[in-house]
Amino acid sequence: MRSDLAIATNGSAAVNTIKGGAVSPLRGEVARVVTTSWDDGDPFDLEIGRVLAERKVTGTFYIPIQGHHNNGRIERAEILTLDSGGFEIGAHGISHPNLPRCEPRQLVVEVEGSKKRLEDDLGKAVKMFAYPNGRHSSRVIAAVKQARFDGARTTEMLACGLAFDPFSMPTSIQVYPHSRLDYVRNLARAADFSRAWGYVTRVWPGSNWVKLAMHLFDRVLARGGVWHLYGHSWEVQEHGLLNALGVVLDYVSNRPGVSYLSNGELARMSPVLSAEPLVCGEGRPL
Of 39, 100, 201, 231, which one has the greatest count of Cβ atoms within 10 A? Predict the structure, then answer.
């Protein structure tokens, strides 16, 4: 993985270079960004890392302190392997709870405790958080900010905009065979009814997640934006999705004029990427 990543705009050569998280954007230009994220710290994360690395695509692995879904938790040595391979490691709570339902003291333990444990393992700062199951509230966001994270990712889908709150980072597509109704429910839960309507009226023909992922990436290529793929490695393994994942990554990787960033790099850029709340690269929903 490259330590220096660049924002290339309008299909031109790279013009904005990111080193150590510092960003010097060129105003008035539209970025095209690919990022990925992976939740739950399953041992199969290493295989996901291999698939990503083969295509020079980076991403962020969000790892809870305790194992999740009865599959066990990735070992410390394996976390260090992902870290040394250039992948970002993010926090995902201690026990993967519903954070808005946590008592104040438990909320602090889940957010700040998970950060400290991972930082002790890695020997460096952990700057990103993913809300377990995407559940968050204003109180939870405040706790994440208090813990000095740079941002936090949700599970909202079908977003490709350049402007977003780094503590409510949305995604574009999940590696999972969702039904069409699942996407509508996801957006309704986020109270993003305009994006839900845009999906129903214009994107609905994408009959499976692979076609939808490619469609959203094409829109980012054409108009600028962020294409954010997320998933759970245990679901990729359980549902036999590794080959389909490879097809999608082959489609989006090694594209000129596209920057491949971790979630943390994207979060630190988000306030300056765009002044317009674009969705899938347009000034209107989907």
Answer: 39
Q: Give the closest residue to 114 by CA, choosing from 133, 90, 136.
A: 90
pLDDT (tens digit per residue) in 245-281: 999 999 999 999 999 999 999 999 876 554 443 444 3
Q: How far apart are the first and last CA of the chain?
A: 32
Given a cut of 70, whether residue 62 has pLDDT beyond it is yes
Per-residue pLDDT tens digits for 105-154: 999 999 999 999 999 999 999 999 999 999 999 999 999 999 999 999 99
* Residues 6+ positions from 229 with CB-CB distance below 8 Å: 34, 35, 36, 37, 59, 171, 172, 173, 174, 175, 213, 248, 252
Predicted confidence band at 101 (pLDDT cuts at 50, 70, 90)? very high
Strands 32-39 and 259-260 turn out to be: parallel
Q: Give the Cβ contact number of residue 47 at 10 Å.
A: 14
Assigned token pair, 173:
């597509």
Residue ranges of domains in the chain, CATH in brackets: 30-158+167-271 (3.20.20.370)
Q: What Cα–Cα distance (Å) separates residue 124 from each residue in 116, 185, 196?
A: 10, 38, 39
Phi, psi values for residue 23, rounded to 5°: -125, 135
Q: Give the residue among 133, 284, 259, 283 at the shortest CA–CA distance from 197.
A: 284
Q: Tell me the pTM.
A: 0.83
